[in-house]
Amino acid sequence: MKRILLYWLPVFLWMGIIFYASSQPYEKQDLRPTISANLDLTIIETLFSSVKLHYAGDEISIEALGAAHFLEFFIRKAAHFSTYFVLGFLMYRALNYYLLNKRLTWLISWIMTILYAISDEVHQSFTPNRSPHLEDVMIDATGGFIGILLASMIYKKFRTKRI
């Protein structure tokens, strides 16, 4: 029981944090007022005025969104990546204890992380003023992949030292 708590409790707590964040309407997570009040946006406008990209069918540029919303977009996508980086790491850590086959640990960790990312986007579709995006799942999957990669490297180093 102690091992289950040690390995799986962090995974489920982190999943709960993700679930809670996904249940918040956009208005409660809107960073634009904070960004506008605390940053000199002329610097952002100067540095990134020529940046234009398309994401989920929308143009992401300072011209289209304004500097605060443009910056918020990148903060939100970094949050997707880092959140699933941690989930992938924790998932690998938990499964590594139970599975002897490291490739299987890798694969199951990544599949579970991706499935949770998909379920998170579906959950967002029921949250006011939030919308699911396949592109977000791809960012989440990439963050999870890198988190799992780091965890596997760390655990490989620990296993090597024990031998």
TrEMBL record:
Transmembrane segments: 73-92, 104-119, 139-155
Chain ranges of the VanZ-like domain: 8-154
Keywords, sorted A to Z: Membrane, Transmembrane, Transmembrane helix
One Pfam family, short name: VanZ
Designated name of the protein: VanZ family protein
Naturally occurring in which organism (per UniProt): Fictibacillus nanhaiensis
